[in-house]
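Table S2 (text version). Query chain:
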Amino acid sequence: MSQVASLPPILEQPLEPYKRVWLEDDRRLLEGPRSRTTEFLRVLRILREFIRGFRALHFVGPCVSVFGSARFAPDHRYYQLGREVGGVVSRLGFTVLTGGGPGIMEAANRGAKEAGGVSVGCNIILPKEQQPNPYLDHMVTFRYFFVRKVMLVKYSQAFVILPGGFGTMDEAFEAATLIQTQKIFDFPLIFMGVEYWQPVFDFLRDKMRVERTIAPLDLERLILTDSLDVLQTTLMQCPFKVFEKPPQPKRRWWLFE
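Corresponding structure-token output:
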């Protein structure tokens, strides 16, 4: 029988009352219809959360989102890879955007800080693994998963996928779907960690492509590599090249910015 390592003590602490309410919001939204008044008030809360996210991230500059597991400790090789990825992204001038938690998210934010770059986290209230890491220049916490996912896509010019679990795969293939359906630009989608991700790519190539549930182009868009040089070269092909110093939006005093 496989054994699961216990989570760090900080992640096992009980949630504060307001966080417990936030944690239940997604479930209450998705478990079915409620009264029209309740639904209307929930829409207003969702709107407020979108506005809060837009305001918090509007001036962080062009970002690269880095996804990966929250469960890798600092001495793990994938944590070290995430740290190197954060450094590469920052040295190109991009802001490193993550889920703001521990593990690979912390590693990428840490690498960004060590390289003198900007490090941003979009945190989410969860039963475990919800603690923000200490390497964030800016952090915004969301109660709704889908709002957080919109922010991670909206402000990104590329997506780097390091080893992770359900959440990482959800984020990676949502980005792939948005690219496939032309809902966003053909941004780079880079999987780092060949040994970890190769079985997934084998399934995509040998099963999904053969059965024509995806097109050959869909698979060609995905990059699988261990090379930081390939990562850097790919990021330099982003549609809006940050190293050309695009003009930043102006702050408006009448919006209290």
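Notes on Table S2: Confidence is low (pLDDT under 50) at residues 1-13. Residues 51-242 form a domain with the Rossmann fold fold (CATH 3.40.50.450).
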